[in-house]
């Protein structure tokens, strides 16, 4: 396998789809997308359009005061949908907070994705139901969780795979480096999926890495792939390749998906303070949705029917998201003291009883002065 | 080494010293008692796995995991690379899969590289997920001084963890509790920081195979009527000696071994103070922000009217842990405890 780098710096950027939408050949990646049909491509296109719409609607909800914060994924749709759609139901995702499109692939309801950002819950969904962990806000911490889960999969003799999503900034964290050591030592079935989106808030990737990020993994004994993260076919093929290595006892694989965060870090960020406008314009030309659209168009598949249907799904999802978000109930006051422990804890139980009594002391007047 | 080679390699031959299952009361050292408790938990539940540095062939630097690799194999006694954050972080991932990991942190002072995973992840997952995900992780920590060790090998970091909600914190003082409480800690669906008094590892005592009462209950080690002397871990033995010495002076000291540091069994503490009216808290950890201050504040809120005198703390100083030849000045000993007893009785200022 020529494109899985076992040493040196893999500076080749693997592509199956040029920015102009031209299908490129790659002997190593092609087999992993060989059976894809026009319908499959249309489904990926629809996914990307819908998650971009979710992103735009959530940003609008934040601007309107309905969300406290939102971390946009604009520009990273191919990296997230291409990898997320390569997973099996029994695999397990451990992500950062920007992988909202991966959550979409894992069947998380769009409204549930917003709970954390509206502040009604710290986990938008049950991680065991969707087999996607509560996104980690501490940068890189989840890569260790993925590795531990994968070690357990090996102990259990299962062929399920853990996928750790993280960004270029996270590669500087100790946890990510420890995860690579453990994954290599125990040959854990884990895929390290790094979205190099070029910016960690205001810090450019060059501050995290003087040499290519994918080039680090072989030093840990982990083969790596450096792919065009805005090329959904390359992303899907590379992820499938890595998943297959993990399932068949090949151990961990590191994928660097080179992409671009076209929006701010979060809605509280202002990239104009640190990022040249020309850079954004360059990356806009490599937009992942435009690119797949061009391929579909060249195949005669970007029909008015597909466009209309995609638009309808996006509209319906956005409407569901908006209504769901605004309709999310505030949590009951005493849930602030719920679930700190799984079993009764006298300290917390006492504080809950005291606070319940305090709240109840207002009840005759409904908390207002009479 | 790959998993394949780990799994296919023959298990190391047992050296004949593996403990027989504990079926009747047996005299064991504290270290052997934990070993027996770990073994019992591993026999009872195949999801119990051990993670740590040097815990396999060596059996841990204190030999607490001796012979467990031979009996249970490398998928259950996992010698890890040297990375504390990863020991805790991979335990989180294993807990996601339904495992009950038991992590060994080699020495108290080495826990801090794993601190973020403990306080930001392990402690919070149940709360964060509204109860969807449990973290039945036990983190074993040899703690405390008195062994003439180099820096980072003698510390008492328990207050960092009692300050962190979502964790249970236990400190054992004797072989019976070591056996019973390690089993309870592993069986707990909450994460437990399990502090082992390293200078007491090789002190033997009777151990029955019973689980005993809940690890949340403090234990009255010696009944008394004049002063309550509250402690945990290695100092329980010193406090018991202090009570004997005080008795020679006609002072009746009640010694309480807290056992659980979070939550604290204030019912037992309060009952004692209502009887004695005087409280001395002693721990090796530094004074400021330590457990002693917290306990005295809580006791003051709960039973101020029963206190005959201002409570007294006998603790380590607010210093980084000192060099071996100075640690005798830092660690509360029998005489400093008696001084505290005298002060709370107004016999000394």
Automatic annotation (TrEMBL), chain A:
Taxonomic superkingdom: Bacteria
Keyword ATP-binding in record: no
Span of the signal peptide: none
Keyword terms, alphabetized: Oxidoreductase, Pyruvate, Thiamine pyrophosphate
Domain Dehydrogenase E1 component: residue ranges: 46-313
Keyword Nucleus included in the entry's annotation: no
Protein name as it appears in the record: Pyruvate dehydrogenase (Acetyl-transferring) E1 component subunit alpha
Cofactor dependency: thiamine diphosphate
Species this chain originates from: Cryobacterium sinapicolor
Gene behind this protein: pdhA
Automatic annotation (TrEMBL), chain B:
Transketolase-like pyrimidine-binding domain location: 28-203
UniProt keyword Oxidoreductase, yes or no: yes
Species of the source: Cryobacterium sinapicolor
Domain of life from the UniProt record: Bacteria
PANTHER family: PYRUVATE DEHYDROGENASE E1 COMPONENT BETA SUBUNIT (PTHR43257), PYRUVATE DEHYDROGENASE E1 COMPONENT SUBUNIT BETA (PTHR43257:SF2)
Database matches in InterPro entries: THDP-binding, Transketo_C/PFOR_II, Transketolase-like_Pyr-bd, Transketolase_C
Gene3D superfamilies the UniProt entry points to: 3.40.50.920, 3.40.50.970
Entry protein name: Alpha-ketoacid dehydrogenase subunit beta
Chain segments annotated as coiled-coil in the UniProt record: none
Listed cofactors: thiamine diphosphate
Keywords annotated in UniProt: Oxidoreductase, Thiamine pyrophosphate
